[in-house]
Amino acid sequence: MSNHNLVERAMAIAVSAHEGQMRKEADVPYIVHPVSVALVLARNGFPDTFVAAALVHDVVEDTSVSLEELRSLLGDEVANIVAPVTHDDTLPWEEKKRAYIEEVRKASLGAKAISLADKISNAHSLLAAYKVQGSAIWKHFNAGREKKLWFEHAMLDMYRETWEHPMVEEYALLVSEMDALE
Asked: Which residues are tagged catalytic?
């Protein structure tokens, strides 16, 4: 199985799994997000297995595709990268976010890279949507502005503690921009 084929298969799974879904803060098809995350990783020179995992990083959390199905379709390496970046939606919001931070803290480089690329992509989306919606953007987030920003800072602190990579500082600049929004 070539890695190029792996990325193509991951893209097909993501397109099919996210069909009909829309981003919560903007009127765009959901598939734009995993493609954006994959592009952040590709731009930073990460391997195709990471790019493939980025394309399907939300399918277990947000669709009917199980981790076992993902494992059988794309292999152990991709599934093992996706597992720690999948939120446990059975937990209350803050507990879920704290658990996610700890999962990513101890996760593999692949999972950490996808998590950070995901945060970068989400920050760009939020900042772009803010230009259109203004402070109304915060109503799209279950926990509101203050808790959303708490989570961004907690993630940034964890990345800074566990990984030296230029994407960490890219994210830091985006967090500062989000802090400045009303």
From this structure: 61-62
